[in-house]
Amino acid sequence: DIQMTQSPSSLSASVGDRVTITCRASQGIRNDLGWYQQKPGKAPKRLIFAASTLQTGVPSRFSGSGSVTEFTLTISSLQPEDFATYYCLQHNTYPPWTFGQGTKVEIK
Amino acid sequence: QVQLVQSGAEVKKPGASVKVSCKASGYTFTSYDINWVRQATGQGLEWMGWMNPNRGNTGYAQKFQGRVTMTRNTSISTAYMELSSLKSEDTAIYYCARGGNITPEYWGQGTLVTVSS
Lengths: 108, 117
Known about the structure:
Helix content of chain A is 0%, strand content 49%.
């Protein structure tokens, strides 16, 4: 199975900061990757699919990039409502789905 | 609009089984796989397995092989996930999600299963 290594596991940032989260796949997955935001007690919310396509309704400060094995989620200017946990998910070899370990974004 | 509505919270004793339902609406139930994902408190997302509602075929993560069964009732557009021989480590929120070889957009609201003596 493909392994997804997500980093960092947590970060502290201030409102207005630029934040970058990375996922690395253990083998090539083309662009079969998405990013999710999860807040406590809620289901994951899709932000990005196909590595770089922004979900309708998601603010443009979120962006995704990368392909094959290296992927990045960037929040260009962190807002108070962005404090949450973020996950990547690969579906290239579905089944299974494989998630990254998650990145908790906390207030500095 | 597409919705996946799950059954309510459950409390079970160790060794028991639990069956969680996921009722789909707003689309043709048999057109998309249903996957199950769980999340222990404070932990990450863990894929459990998939089911094709059209054919009923399934596949499970090795970790859950022999303990999990995914079924469906197409007449009421509902998928089920049954987990047996429950242990305290199975205490988690269980989610259903629509999709296969895609980044799933639609998720159920989650069902908390608590395993406690």
